[in-house]
Amino acid sequence: MNQIYLAPLEGVTDSIYRNTFKTYYGGVAKYFTPFISPNSNLKFTTREFKDIDPEQNDINTTVPQLLTNNSEHFLWAVGEIAALGYKEINFNLGCPSGTVVAKKKGSGLLFYNDDLDKMLYEIFEGIEAACASTGADVPEISIKTRLGKAEPDEFYEILDIYNKYPIKELTIHPRIQSDFYREPLRPEFFEYAVEHSKAPLVFNGEVKTLEDITAIFRKYDTVNALMIGRGLIANPQLALEYEAGHALAFDYDKFRTFQEDLLSQYIAVLSGEKPVLHRLKEFWAFWQELYPNNEKALKKIRKANRLADYTAALALLKHP
Ligand SMILES: Cc1cc2nc3c(=O)[nH]c(=O)nc-3n(C[C@H](O)[C@H](O)[C@H](O)COP(=O)(O)O)c2cc1C
Fold first, then answer.
1. Distance, CA of 36 to CA of 309 (rounded, Å)
2. Cα dihedral angle (95, 98, 103, 106), rounded to 10 degrees?
3. How many whole angstroms from 85 Cα to the centroid of ligand 1?
């Protein structure tokens, strides 16, 4: 199928970003939301609901993601989200953050095979009843996983567990928890999954260029899709280049309109200049690569404490 998906990045790829990206760029078949953490309150926070509100998301291309180790909480959220019209819900088994892992969630659950197996069993056993209770069609469940927590060899048993369940798609980020986002990928374990996974596969990790995309699809010709996070945020044209089949000159005018549009939307929804600047600076951590030899202006962007300073710094940027 060779599709591109946008990876979820908490604090970056919210619904405003996803929608604006889609308006200006696109080339992406599915947009995964950053994780929502259902808990015993059985209630979404305002921020969580905003990010999956069907009025602000395309239910056909957006995939809400859940992070929990409790099947009851998971199934409650599935019933609610399916009732909003979503067709697929993703289970986060990859988050490496210390606080998440300490609670046996995300990649922390990968260390407890019996708990993981039990959780998946209960999810797939209970999903019809959970959706019947909200009158929703049963959505498909996909998983985003790492190879394990402490050792990549954990992956063999983890994959055996996944293979017991009708998982719509298995996205693998071929690192273990302690690799975080820095250590080299471990592609040999992805290759093991290509041989042994019953679920269709999605590759995720360190894809930054058109050459990377074509190399992955060439190497793993049975994978369904490539999920890209940082590479696609840093170069929002990347998926369009893949669609076109060749590199595209970077359109700086379009990019400027894109980022000004994001800025005005965040000004409209966030209260105060600080939260707006915080949000925009997150993007600039990725976008700075688009402006080589602009260290002075980029530093002013990073240091800006007021919107006026920020926009003045933007005006100093010179593109290649
Ligand atoms: C700041 C940040 C936030 C992230 N938030 C999430 C998240 O909410 N859910 C998730 O599954 N992965 C999350 N990830 C992981 C990314 O989805 C992705 O797996 C990772 O960045 C590797 O892919 P890439 O090399 O294409 O960026 C996050 C990563 C970063 C750097």
1. 34
2. 10
3. 25
Q: Which domain holds residue 108?
A: 3-244
271: left (phi over 0), alpha (psi -120 to 50) or beta: beta
* Residue 45 token pair: 């926070």
Q: Strands 201-204 and 170-172, how do they pair?
A: parallel
Q: Which of 99, 143, 181, 238 to mutate to test the pocket of ligand 1 (most atoms within 8 A of CB)?
A: 181
Same structural domain for residues 213 and 79? Answer: yes
> Which atom of ligand 1 is the closest one to the Cα of 33?
8
pLDDT at position 1 is 73
Pocket of ligand 1 (CB under 6 A): 7-11, 34-35, 65, 92, 94-95, 144, 173, 181, 204-207, 228-231
Decide which of 205, 228, 244 is a domain's last residue. 244
Cα(205)–Cα(92) distance, integer angstroms: 15
Single out the residue in 228, 244, 260 at which a domain terminates: 244
pLDDT above 80 for 27: yes
Tell me the CA–centroid distance for residue 9 and ligand 1, in Å: 5
Per-residue pLDDT at 124: 98
**270: CA distance to ligand 1 center in Å?**
23
Q: Which residue has the tokens 């209770």?
A: 133
Q: Which residue has the tokens 């019809």?
A: 128
Query: Using alpha carbons only, what angle is made at residue 82 by residues 24 and 67, rounded to the nearest 5 degrees?
Result: 80
The answer on 312 and 184 residing in a single domain is no
The Cα 182–Cα 299 span in angstroms is: 24
Distance from the alpha carbon of residue 28 to the mean position of ligand 1, in angstroms: 16
**Given this model, what pLDDT does residue 159 score?**
98
